[in-house]
Structures are given as C-alpha cells and as structure tokens.
C-alpha cells in the first residue's frame, strides 16, 4: 500500500499532502515547504515537519521561520530528530547561531538554492570576499574595505571586484554629468572643460 503517492487504490496515504514528488510508494523525493526528508529504520525517505519554535521575531512580529531542516532518525525513540536548519521562508540561516535572520549583516550575503519545483531548498548567510565591506555575492562587492577600491566591469554596474590600491599620490579629477561622454577613453577628467561623467568612473580612473 502507498504511504506517499496518494493512489486511490491504496487506503494508506498519510503523506500524500506533504510529499510533492515520490520515487516510489515508500520513498519521497520532494516535500512540501516547511517539511524535509529523513530516512526511517528501513532506509526509506519520508517527510517530517520542521520545528517552527526556532524563529526570528522583531518587536513580537514573526519575521522568519524554518522551511527546510536536517533530520537524523533516533532508533531508540523511534522518530526523527531535527539537527539544524537549512532554509528560512523570509530570510537566511545564520551559521553562527543556527537560527533564521532577515539580514545577514555587513561582510556577508544571502545565498539561496532551489529545487526543480522552484521551492527554496537552502538559504544561508555566506561570507563576502575578504576585501569586500558589503557584497551582493562572494565575487560581487558593493563597497570595499580600507585600502581597496571598487572596479566594475562597466559604468552601468554598481558591483565589482575590490582591488588593492597601489601607492599614493594627489591628483585633482573633475567630475560632471557631461552629456555625450560615456566612456573613460572619451575624457580625461583633468580639466573643467573635460570632466569625467561620474564619481565611480573617477575612482576607477
């Protein structure tokens, strides 16, 4: 009899509403959001609800709860035991606290992966590149630590790599939103009549 697929020919279908995709009648592959897989004593994959007691609250307002988690099966107790959180519904797992957070903070970014049904499978706070002060991903810095400057691939991008400054010198660069000058090879920025069109371009220049 099927416990997973919800086949009308089999009356035992206790997991048909929480198992979205099953490999066979005893093994689930994808669980409903808020549930995760565990292996029972027979080695079959089943769905178990994540513990929502571990949640993030700001001023008594619920902001994020676990939606994916890791389980081990306790043979003595005869049930799955939650070990740690893998994903949160409105935020990311902070690996330092193993709790959900809505903001990873400076020096870190939120990293998310999805399963083939488009549901979040993991969401976690990851470290930026060592030279980044803020970042959108590990290799996309938004701002840099002291002693580094942001180098973007193009003037239209606001993220890039943090490059170490080499030496020091004083130079006056003029910046103005001059129409018709959109690349650094069209202007020098060294005079009022020949300004660079943006502050970001001036820094890169």
TrEMBL record:
<dbReference type="InterPro" id="IPR009030">
    <property type="entry name" value="Growth_fac_rcpt_cys_sf"/>
</dbReference>
<protein>
    <submittedName>
        <fullName>Uncharacterized protein</fullName>
    </submittedName>
</protein>
